[in-house]
């Protein structure tokens, strides 16, 4: 018998001062049986960093050719493709060919090694942003994963303040690659 995904509900209040975007989102996240709480929370954080009414969670781990999060315009064209973790560079290049913009949020103890290995292939892509997230902080966020969650996400000057009713966590994604002109 196949294991089923676990459903998580999150209320996320986003205050993005950089983009002047302010909204409350009631989100449903499905955690694949092989997905960790850390990865689940990084997906939620990625949503907060790029929040938009049309941003959706993809199939993620269960489907290689689908983003962890993506956004389409009214014609169906993919305007934003977001992957979290340490994706295969071939899949990132494929995503860059399908989407206007691709963002990778790399995290984990081997994120630096992944970047060193992948950098040569990925630097050529003109529509790719790559950020590294602090491992200690992503592991702290993992401990906050519950079936029902409520967070405030404030983005200012590229940094994120991720807050619960009890605590706040400051995170500054480290830019590893930004397209020319950004």
UniProtKB/TrEMBL annotation:
Tell me the Gene3D superfamilies matching this sequence.
Answer: Restriction endonuclease-like alpha-beta roll domain (3.10.640.10)
Please report the name of this protein according to its UniProt entry. YaeQ family protein
Q: Which InterPro entries match?
A: Restrct_endonuc-II-like, YaeQ, YaeQ_sf
Q: Which SUPFAM superfamilies match?
A: Restriction endonuclease-like (SSF52980)
Q: Which Pfam families does the record associate with it?
A: YaeQ
């Amino acid at each position: 018998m196949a294991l089923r995904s676990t459903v998580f509900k999150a209320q996320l209040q986003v205050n993005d001062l950089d983009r002047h975007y302010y909204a409350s989102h009631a989100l449903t996240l499905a955690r694949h049986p092989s997905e960790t709480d850390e990865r689940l929370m990084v997906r939620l954080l990625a949503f907060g960093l790029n929040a938009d009414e049309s941003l959706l969670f993809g199939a993620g781990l269960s489907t290689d050719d689908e983003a962890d999060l993506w956004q389409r315009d009214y014609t169906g064209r993919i305007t934003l493709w977001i992957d979290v973790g340490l994706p295969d560079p071939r899949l990132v290049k494929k995503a860059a060919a399908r989407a206007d913009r691709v963002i990778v949020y790399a995290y984990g103890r081997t994120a630096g090694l992944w970047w060193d290995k992948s950098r040569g292939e990925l630097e050529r892509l003109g529509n790719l942003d790559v950020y590294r997230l602090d491992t200690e902080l992503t592991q702290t966020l993992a401990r906050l994963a519950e079936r029902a969650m409520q967070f405030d996400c404030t983005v200012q000057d590229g940094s994120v303040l991720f807050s619960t009713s009890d605590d706040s966590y400051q995170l500054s994604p480290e830019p590893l690659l930004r397209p020319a002109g950004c």
